[in-house]
Specification:
The two termini are 56 Å apart. The protein has 4 helices and no strands. The chain has a domain of 103 residues. The chain has 151 residues and is mainly alpha-helical. The protein is rod-shaped and about 100 Å long. Helix 2 runs antiparallel to helix 3 and helix 2 packs antiparallel against helix 4.
């Protein structure tokens, strides 16, 4: 005796695929929300660091200029080198020192961890699972294809 309960108790493929699609959408929305929070936090930290660096840089620059003037005047007084040559020597030393500091700073910026890289890693972790969940395992039906575009 078939009273129709069998059809009610078994979920349909469309409802299963709809549930999987809803889960995938929820996962994507959570990743977007997490990424927004991470970016906001990184920007806040970066702004705080930039303010401190800017203030410190201004103070150091003022002190550095006074020290360079003292060095130039000291060279002119204690040597036979003319004043213009003393400025040339001090300026050359500053250019070399600045180049070394810039090279060190560039090397450090290449090692920074970026939020988009972490997001891409999370998507790479979740994409196989999502593909497996949305692929049908029936003979005649075609699997659902998921295309992932780079961020």
């Amino acid at each position: 005796m078939n009273n129709g309960l069998r059809h009610i108790l078994q979920p349909r493929w469309t409802s299963l695929l709809g549930g999987i699609a809803d889960d995938a959408r929820e996962l994507l929305m959570r990743q977007v929300a997490t990424t927004k929070l991470e970016v906001r936090d990184e920007l806040r930290n970066g702004l705080t660091a930039a303010m401190g660096l800017g203030i410190g840089l201004g103070i150091v620059a003022g002190g550095g200029m006074l020290l360079m003037l003292m060095l130039v005047q000291g060279l002119a007084v204690f040597t036979v080198v003319p004043l213009w040559a003393c400025y040339g020597i001090a300026g050359s030393a500053l250019v070399v020192l600045g180049g070394v500091v810039l090279a060190a700073g560039r090397a450090k910026t290449e090692k920074l961890d970026s939020v988009p890289r972490r997001v891409a890693e999370r998507i790479d972790e979740n994409a196989p699972w999502l593909t497996k969940q949305t692929t049908l395992d029936k003979g005649n039906e075609q699997p659902v294809k998921i295309s992932r575009t780079p961020i």
